[in-house]
Structures are given as structure tokens and as C-alpha cells.
Design brief:
Blueprint lengths: L9 H13 L8 H5 L6 H18 L5 H10 L4 H4 L4 H6 L4 H10 L4 H13 L3 H23 L5 H10 L4 H12 L23 E2 L2 E2 L2
Antiparallel strand pairs: 1-2
Helix pairs in contact: 3-4, 3-9, 4-8, 4-9, 7-8, 8-9, 9-10, 9-11, 10-11
């Protein structure tokens, strides 16, 4: 039986927030059930979306980078309480994610910041919000691409649908590149002699061969 702490100070509230946000790592993204392969937690999605949003800020230097990253980390925070709803689920009834975020906000001393960022992202009227939404779509595109190269023939059609949902100039351009880039391209070069025998003299440090 869980005992309620009678104290309700800032540390108690933050402690509960720590445990609640830990649930995201155990909350599955449900779109994979229909895709037929792959898996991802809400926490993985939030982290990767934040990294993509951060990168997009480099292409839009006038936006508030810190705000964008925080908004990306919080945009699905309510799914720890509501779970993730894929497109099919959403078509027949959306869970009260807004209500979940409101309840979370009431439970912590920094709740107003969470609510404000969530509502701004949902409205998608500011440059920061549009970047976060595109980062959300781009994260999905990159995940689908990883499933496509593993042989899931449905993933390509899903990628094409997601690309059509991109809104910013840079998001659209990056979406096209992600759709044709192999997920291993950042580390695997089949012409690199390092991969044949992994000899020390061919090891690269910062793009320069070690002598």
C-alpha cells in the first residue's frame, strides 16, 4: 500500500515529478502495433525529438533555442497518464491529454511553465512551436526509415504520409533527406579500410587518420 506523504512542500512535489516522468520510459508508442515492427517508448521519442528540434534551431537562429528544446521535451508529457494514441485510436476518441497536463501542472511549483509550453506547442502559432511539431514528425520519419531498411515494406508509405505533414521550410528539406539516408550512414563507410581488420593506423580521430 502506498502511503501518502502528509507534507506537500516543493521537494515532495519534485520527487513525485521525478517518478512520474520515469514512467515515460515504460510507456510504449502504439503506432508500431499497426506498423508491424519496431518499438519505442515515449521517453525515447521525447529525447530524440528534442535533439532534432535543437538541430533545427541551427537553421532558424532567431528562435528561442532553449524554449524549443524544453517544449520538445514536454510536448508528450501527458502520455505518462493517458498512454500514447496512434492515428487509428485518435480517429475514434482522443484521451484527455490536455487535462492530464493540467493536472501535472497543478502538482508542481513550475506547473505554469509546463502548461504554457504545452498549449503553445498545441496551437502551433509561433516559430518555436512549429519547429517542435516538425521535429516530432521528423523523429517519426527517422524511426520509420530505420524499419524500412530492415525490410518493413509498409514503412515507406507511412514516411510519405508523415512528410506531407511537415510545415517549416527546413523541416520539409530535412524530411526529404531523412527519407533517403541510410540510418547507418553516420558511422558505416564500406570504403573505409578501418572496417577491414580494424587496423590502428586507419582509425580516424575527428576525421583525420591517425599516423
Amino acid at each position: 500500500m502506498v502511503k501518502k506523504n502528509k507534507k506537500n512542500n516543493t521537494y515532495d512535489q519534485i520527487a513525485n515529478f521525478v517518478y512520474e516522468t520515469g514512467i515515460h520510459s515504460m510507456t510504449p508508442r502504439s503506432g508500431f502495433w499497426f506498423l508491424g515492427s519496431g518499438e519505442q517508448s515515449v521517453a525515447e521519442h521525447l529525447f530524440h525529438t528534442a535533439m532534432i528540434a535543437y538541430a533545427l534551431c541551427h537553421l532558424e537562429p532567431k528562435v528561442d533555442k532553449n524554449k524549443v528544446v524544453l517544449m520538445a521535451l514536454l510536448h508528450d508529457i501527458g502520455e505518462g497518464r493517458t498512454s500514447d494514441h496512434n492515428y487509428v485510436h485518435q480517429r475514434y476518441g482522443r484521451l484527455a491529454e490536455g487535462q492530464a497536463v493540467e493536472d501535472i501542472s497543478k502538482s508542481v511549483p513550475f506547473g505554469k511553465e509546463i502548461t504554457d509550453l504545452f498549449q503553445e506547442e498545441q496551437a502551433r502559432l509561433t516559430p518555436e512551436a512549429r519547429i517542435v511539431k516538425d521535429a516530432d514528425r521528423l523523429e517519426w520519419i527517422s524511426t520509420l526509415r530505420a524499419e524500412e531498411v530492415k525490410g518493413n515494406i509498409k514503412a515507406k508509405d507511412w514516411i510519405n504520409i508523415a512528410i506531407k505533414d511537415l510545415r517549416t521550410k527546413h523541416g520539409k528539406e530535412l524530411g526529404k533527406i531523412l527519407a533517403k539516408t541510410h540510418p547507418d550512414s553516420w558511422w558505416l563507410d564500406i570504403n573505409d579500410p578501418w572496417f577491414i581488420g580494424r587496423k590502428e593506423k586507419y582509425r580516424k580521430w575527428g576525421g583525420v587518420k591517425k599516423k
